[in-house]
Amino acid sequence: MKAYLFPGQGAQFTGMGLDLYESSPKAKDLFNQANELLGFDITKIMFEGTADELKETKVTQPAIFLHSTILAEVMGNQFQPDMVAGHSLGELSALVANKTLAFKDGLTLVSKRALAMQKACEIAPSTMAAVLGLEDHIVEEICAATSGVVVAANYNCPGQLVISGEIDAVNAACEALKEAGARRALLLPVGGAFHSPMMEPAREELAAAIENTPFAVPACPIYQNVSTTAVVNAAEIKKNLMVQLTAPVKWTQSIKQMIADGADKFIEVGPGNVLQGLVKKVDRSLETEKASI
Length: 293
What we know:
alpha/beta, 4-stranded parallel beta sheet, 13 helices, 10 strands
């Protein structure tokens, strides 16, 4: 069975999507719709922008979403998922690809999500850190024992977990994690504490927008970051998406569940190849590939 995976923030690069734009009239039309809906020329930044311009939150998230969803659309009959999943932001790409969300509705939510997260980051200084080489339960226990806000945020693969929270709390947890035997515990160059309680203002703002967006019955199950299991009920998908910003991304658990449910081929749709690498860390024997037209 084929599982299609959609990347999150960090996969952007200059020139992303240009091949799609130049080779497909359908892609060109969708990119032009995006420029109009967002109110700025995102395609120009995607195709020609500097790394710094692409790192702006209001650009990064829509850019990755556009690259992923337009590629899935242009693949046509080649895109035949038995199941889908998306890492953080990628969950919205997956929901457009499996027909739960209309393209324009998905893009509107991504844009609102990016701006709401940016605002939440400005309220209080916060950060994230990657922890390598410790079992999940040890990281969770140390976060729980650290004063201040610090939580396990991204379960990326066995032995790689990202923590998130207030700067002082994250730094203190990093020291304790190193003492507990972590191979590395290093701060990430991010604007704030994503997937932690620090994102509550953004979660509230985005939840209101999600509430007013129509969700259809999906063409195939989605394995959501919050639930990690196959979901096909539109109301349940909506409910899970509403709490995603303050809940952890349970990626390892989702991939393991997809394997248990029969997935034996994982195809990454969008920029970069990070998710293929994470799948291989879960199970070396799995077949992975990059989607292309």
